[in-house]
Design brief:
387 residues; alpha/beta; Rossmann fold; 2 domains; 6-stranded parallel β-sheet; 15 helices; 38% helix; elongated; disordered N terminus
Length: 387
């Protein structure tokens, strides 16, 4: 049994499905790394497992507890959660997204005094928030949750209007980005390990970053790229496409590009750990998702000083200001995306101006310090909530 010292600061148990590469996970790591030392202790509970992504945590004292949940409904994982919580005795229990929300029940039974749930984005099986079962689950578990934290206005509206959560229980907090890691290249593009491109000044590099599965819809970007080359074959000497990420759509994207004989002007390396360096090699960032919360990759690209082309879904319009920091296009519309891409390819001044505005917007509204301060306000409120 771990003894709880009165001298120790309160412990926050952050609950996620898996500690691996992803926007949600990156947000948790950024939050923990940048919270004031000595204010709170932190533990990360992974329903399944942890990966080498945990090396991004900068504090050695953080405990990581994998529960090794089996696929499907693993009832024993609730027992393991209850026993773990009784052992480590956190003051605050913070689940994130639908996959972890049910574990608010063992947290309640274990006597955790302040329970928080974050909504970071839509579930892959419910990209529009229309699933009545998922609404019902949140509505019932609302009884066990003190505070909901949606990351976008759309998710906040979903909790209010479709789930029926009281506005008094909702605090919207947008993600923040570390501008010391993501910053503009100022025209100096450095070579990347294993990259076939030399990043010549007369070439335009279009890129995206994200898990390559259905909801991210990288195939729309691939089809838009193919259309550009088909309509204007001379652009084959000028434009390059970089798709960073791993998942089932990677093979499909590779096949589409191979069929068009474009293997020499595209790069699909899979998962990478040098995202900031890759961003600084791009000229245009594209997010073709069919659903989004507040996208970390959009924030990172904006901080890098890139103009953004994103689908007009979820939290994207909160980040991308039309004709100021980028452009919004219809989802799953390769023709519209291709037309938009051509506008940026052919207008160097527009790319630079909108990229500059994107960086300025990050500095003014989406700093990491502002995000951390907002979470601290929620966590600090637990002192009055639990009296």
């Amino acid at each position: 049994m771990i003894q709880k010292s009165k001298l120790n600061p309160p412990l926050i148990a952050h609950v996620i499905y898996q500690l691996g590469v992803g926007g949600l996970e990156n947000g948790v790591v950024n939050l923990i790394n940048n919270m004031p030392s000595g204010k709170y202790r932190h533990a990360i509970i992974c329903l399944t497992t942890s990966t080498d992504f945990e090396s991004r945590l900068k504090r050695d004292e953080i405990e990581i507890y994998p529960l090794h949940k089996k696929p499907g409904q693993d009832w024993m994982s609730f027992v393991r959660m209850y026993r773990l919580l009784r052992e480590i005795q956190p003051a605050i229990f913070h689940t994130r997204n639908l996959g972890t929300i049910e574990y608010q029940i063992p947290a309640f039974l274990a006597g955790i005094k302040f329970r928080v749930h974050g909504e970071h984005g839509w579930d892959v099986f419910d990209p529009r928030g229309e699933n009545k079962k998922y609404q019902w689950i949140r509505r019932v578990l609302n009884l066990f949750i003190h505070r909901f934290i949606p990351l976008s206005k759309e998710l906040e509206g979903y909790l209010l209007d479709k789930v029926g959560i009281s506005p008094k229980k909702i605090t919207r907090i947008c993600n923040g980005v570390d501008t010391n890691i993501f910053y503009p290249s100022n025209g100096k593009k450095q070579p990347l390990v294993d990259c076939p491109f030399y990043f010549r000044e007369n070439e335009i590099y279009i890129g995206t970053v994200g898990r390559m599965h259905g909801v991210k819809d990288q195939l729309t970007l691939v089809r838009a790229f193919l259309k550009i080359i088909e309509d204007l074959p001379e652009l084959k000497k000028k434009v390059r496409l970089i798709l960073i990420g791993e998942g089932p759509l990677r093979t499909k994207a590779e096949q589409l590009l191979a069929d068009a004989d474009l293997h020499e002007i595209v790069w699909l390396p899979g998962k990478r750990d040098d995202i900031a360096d890759i961003m600084r090699c791009l000229d245009i960032f594209v997010l073709p998702s069919v659903a989004e919360g507040i996208s970390n990759t959009i924030l990172e690209a904006m901080a890098t000083g890139l103009p953004i082309i994103a689908t007009n879904v979820g939290g994207n319009p909160e980040l991308v200001i039309e004709a100021e920091t980028g452009s919004l296009v219809e989802k799953q519309n390769p023709t519209m995306m291709a037309k938009c891409l051509l506008n940026y390819i052919n207008n160097n001044t527009m790319r630079n101006q909108r990229g500059h505005s994107a960086r300025k917007r990050i500095e003014e509204q989406f700093s990491l310090n502002k995000m951390v301060a907002s979470y601290l306000e929620v966590y600090d409120s637990s002192a009055t909530k639990t009296k």
